[in-house]
Write a structure and sequence with these properties.
The chain is α+β, with helices and mostly antiparallel strands. Helix content is 32%, strand content 28%. It has 8 helices and 14 strands. The strands form 3 sheets. It has a 7-stranded mixed β-sheet, with helices on both faces. A 5-stranded mixed β-sheet has the order 11-10-12-14-13. It has a two-stranded antiparallel sheet with strand order 1-2. α3 links the parallel β3 and β4. α1 packs antiparallel against α2. It starts with a helix and ends in a 6-residue tail after the last helix.
């Protein structure tokens, strides 16, 4: 078995510990600046990254992450396993203080995400699971202990009307075009915007059917979400090729993609 109970335990503990680090900055204040690529980074990103990196390093599995120096592909391409980490997904939303940020940790096996956990520090909830593991939502307390867990099942029904969720910070022309195409097929649709990988909570819980992204994302933004969604019968595919997304690529940038729920796929609802 690729994913062990120890892997899961360490990932969940890292997520909970990092949540309280982030919330401390969130409540007390933090400094931020723009990175070379123009995206913001804060003291909280770096503190969370260091904590998670130190805990995951005990597994002796290499790490790819948002706030670390990632090794060259010539070395990475030989890895059979790697962690993929975003210590603060939704930094823009964190700075805005709208609560829509998350911590993402995924375990990748030969390019395929086999385990993922996505944590909402503000709600003290974690969604986690992966290939053959099931998917669960857990609540945790101030002592960094899980207090309540429920297992999720595949959602059987598509929302009426069809519900599309997308990024709060990247509303592109392509999204407007995609909405128009969906409406031409299905009539009126519900459209919601939300920051970070918290969108995967909505798909897993059956609150959304589709998540479309026509703006840049990196592997650590969605690897955990893909592991969770695929275990629930859903999928994420490259808009251009139609192929499932793979990870630990030479270029860690994701293609534009559409994520679909199990119900949407099973009911053979036409989409573009």
């Amino acid at each position: 078995m690729v994913v062990t109970n120890s892997h899961i335990s360490i990932a969940l503990q890292a997520s909970m510990d990092a949540s309280f680090v982030l919330m401390d900055f969130y409540q007390k204040g933090f400094s931020s600046h723009d990175k070379a690529d123009g995206t913001p980074v804060t003291e909280a990103d770096n503190a969370s990254s260091l904590l998670i990196h130190n805990l995951l390093a005990t597994t002796q599995i290499p790490i790819i992450g948002e706030e670390i120096t990632n090794l060259p592909y010539e070395e990475r391409k030989h890895w059979e396993l790697n962690w993929c980490v975003d210590p603060l997904d939704g930094t823009k939303e964190f700075i805005k203080k709208n609560g829509e940020f998350a911590i993402n940790i995924a375990l990748i096996s030969q390019g395929i995400p086999v385990f993922g956990c996505i944590t909402s520090p503000t709600e003290q909830k974690i969604i986690y699971g992966g290939k053959g593991l099931g998917v669960f939502i857990a609540e945790f307390n101030e002592d960094k202990q899980i207090t309540h867990t429920i297992e999720l099942s595949k959602q059987p029904n598509v929302n009426q009307p069809v519900t599309l969720i997308a990024s709060r910070s990247f509303h592109t022309i392509e999204i407007n075009t995609y909405i128009a195409k969906l409406e031409a097929i299905h009539g009126s649709i519900n459209f919601h915007q939300k920051g970070s990988a918290l969108k995967f909570f909505d798909i897993a819980l059956g609150k959304a059917d589709l998540y479309a992204r026509f703006a840049p994302t990196m592997e650590w933004d969605i690897a955990a979400g893909q592991a969770i969604l695929e275990e629930l019968g859903g999928e994420i595919r490259d808009v251009s090729s139609g192929e499932k997304l793979v990870y630990n690529k030479e270029n860690l940038l994701n293609p534009h993609f559409i994520a679909k729920s199990y119900a949407f796929i099973q009911q053979h609802v036409t989409t573009l």
